[in-house]
């Protein structure tokens, strides 16, 4: 793990990169990284995340600033701007059932090619996908997702980079920390090694590449 | 009485001690206000919490303790927090006893459509497809009509949420179940006639003879 300044971290994310971003309606989203992506005028990004929050919150900031080319999410209903850009055809949106999205990310981080899920069978989600019967039940083959960068919000981080999360701020964060080539983390508190006991570490330090210096 | 409250109170009768229950946004959320006294029910928020409690008092909100709509909630003693893979493992894996969701349309075989209106409103399915596919029991909480148009229809014109049929639809007019795949009026709200229900329903509705088992 390396400590890095916010502007330097975001400078290393090129236009056109694919990002996984933690958070559920902005809760557990690294806001500082969102603000800095907008400030540096990044363009043509793909974001894989649960939702696009609401205007002015979390990923909603990226939508409003037209930083994104493509979104893979389960829900965009609380951000009218996302729906507007999608209808206008300026933003591609792939909607994925939430349980499927998180499993595709988990598969991407765990070396699996995909997962078999019953969710989406008999709906438009099935279109263009393989169905596979296992012991008499039909499943959809949903392929794994990976990203160039994971932008994570943690609660505690020790000097080595071990992470824990707070309550519903956890959501997709530990999953995306497994599924991206470079993992950047904003943290609420930095604590000495040992404060987070081995049984309570959720994301082990070797997964973390950069921790954004507190500012 | 407010139709939403009629619906929420009726659904609360379906709760049992020790159940793990997921409530959707809107009318379903109100069900938590009518848990029978002395009964303990575990409420799950799919954003990663079991033991979701009431809205916090003014000034007591914690910014990382929210419901699935992103609104502040509290956590009751004995609550647990987990990531989204665990949360949807609980939902899809058959560990969830009951889910209560809103609906746009339900067809006469019990198929639910509740996640988009093509060309108009595309909020996305969020967790709805997993909930309807995976929960042990699915109850739809919705008003019987929308702007005077029936929501219980012969065939859904909107995209389906799941191939699985729901177990109950509770509206302000009554309760509909789907024995043998056929919409059946099993209960009417107080003061509501069979004719009133039929007049507001497009689906073919079986009405059991009075006194029939």
Task: Give me some keywords for this one.
heterodimer; A: 215 residues; alpha/beta; Glutaconate Coenzyme A-transferase; nine-stranded mixed β-sheet; three-stranded antiparallel β-sheet; 23% helix; 30% strand; B: 213 residues; three-stranded mixed β-sheet; 14 strands; 17% helix; globular
Topology (elements, then pairings):
The complex is a heterodimer of chains A (215) and B (213).
Chain A: E1 2-4, H1 6-11, E2 18-21, H2 31-39, E3 45-48, H3 59-64, E4 68-73, H4 80-88, E5 92-95, H5 98-109, E6 114-117, E7 131-134, E8 137-143, E9 147-158, E10 163-164, H6 173-179, E11 180-191, E12 210-212
Parallel strand pairs in A: 1-12, 2-3, 2-9, 3-4, 4-5, 9-11, 11-12
Antiparallel strand pairs in A: 6-8, 7-8, 9-10
Chain B: H1 3-12, E1 20-23, H2 27-30, E2 42-45, E3 49-53, E4 74-81, H3 84-92, E5 98-101, E6 105-107, E7 112-113, H4 128-134, E8 138-141, E9 145-146, E10 149-150, E11 152-153, E12 168-170, E13 174-177, E14 184-188, H5 194-199
Parallel strand pairs in B: 1-2, 1-5, 5-8, 6-11, 8-12
Antiparallel strand pairs in B: 2-3, 3-4, 6-7, 9-10, 12-13, 13-14
What does this entry look like structurally?
The complex is a heterodimer of chains A (215) and B (213). Chain A has 215 residues and is an alpha/beta fold. Chain A has a single domain, classed as Glutaconate Coenzyme A-transferase. Helix content of chain A is 23%, strand content 30%. In chain A, the strands form two sheets. In chain A, strands 1, 2, 3, 4, 5, 9, 10, 11 and 12 form a nine-stranded mixed sheet that branches. In chain A, strands 6-8-7 form a three-stranded antiparallel sheet. The longest helix of chain A has 12 residues, at 98-109. Chain A starts with a strand and ends with a strand. Chain B contains five helices and 14 strands. A nine-stranded mixed sheet of chain B has the order 4-3-2-1-5-8-12-13-14, with helices on both faces. In chain B, β13 and β14 (184-188) form a beta hairpin. Classes of the chains: A alpha/beta (215), B alpha/beta (213).
């Amino acid at each position: 793990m390396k400590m890095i300044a916010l502007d330097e971290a975001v400078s290393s994310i090129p236009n056109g990169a694919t990002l996984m971003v933690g958070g559920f309606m902005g809760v557990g989203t690294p806001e500082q990284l969102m603000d800095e992506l907008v400030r540096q005028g990044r363009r043509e990004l793909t974001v894989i995340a649960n939702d696009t929050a609401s205007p002015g919150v979390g990923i909603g900031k990226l939508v409003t600033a037209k930083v994104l080319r493509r979104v893979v999410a389960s829900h965009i209903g609380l951000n009218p701007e996302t729906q507007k850009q999608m209808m206008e055809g300026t933003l591609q949106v792939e909607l994925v059932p939430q349980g499927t999205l998180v499993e595709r990310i988990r598969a991407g981080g765990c070396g699996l090619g995909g997962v078999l899920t019953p969710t989406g069978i008999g709906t438009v989600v099935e279109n263009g996908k393989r169905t596979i019967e296992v012991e008499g039940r039909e499943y959809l083959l949903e392929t794994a997702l990976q990203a160039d960068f994971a932008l994570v919000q943690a609660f505690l981080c020790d000097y080595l980079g071990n992470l824990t999360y707070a309550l519903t701020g956890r959501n997709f964060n530990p999953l995306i920390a497994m599924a991206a080539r470079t993992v950047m983390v904003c943290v609420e508190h930095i604590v000495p090694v040992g404060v987070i006991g081995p049984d309570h570490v959720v994301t082990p330090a070797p997964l973390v590449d950069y921790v954004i210096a507190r500012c | 009485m407010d139709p939403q409250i009629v619906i929420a109170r009726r659904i609360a009768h379906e709760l049992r001690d020790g159940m793990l229950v997921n409530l959707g946004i809107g009318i379903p959320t109100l069900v938590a206000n009518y848990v029978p006294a002395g009964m303990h029910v575990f409420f799950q928020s799919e954003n990663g919490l079991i033991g979701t409690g009431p809205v916090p008092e003014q000034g007591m909100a914690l910014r990382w303790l929210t419901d699935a709509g992103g609104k502040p909630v509290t956590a009751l003693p004995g609550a647990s927090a987990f990531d989204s893979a665990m949360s949807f493992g609980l939902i899809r894996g058959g560990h969830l006893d009951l889910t209560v969701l809103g609906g746009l349309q339900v067809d006469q075989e019990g198929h639910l459509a509740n996640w988009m209106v093509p060309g108009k409103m595309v909020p996305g399915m969020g967790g709805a497809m997993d909930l309807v596919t995976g929960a042990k029991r699915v109850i739809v909480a919705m008003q019987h009509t929308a702007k005077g148009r029936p929501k219980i229809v012969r065939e859904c014109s909107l995209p389906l949420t799941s191939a699985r049929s729901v177990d109950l639809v509770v509206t302000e007019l009554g309760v509909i179940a789907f024995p043998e795949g056929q919409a059946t009026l099993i209960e009417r709200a107080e003061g509501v006639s069979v004719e009133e229900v039929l007049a507001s329903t497009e689906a073919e509705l079986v009405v059991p003879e009075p006194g029939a088992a």
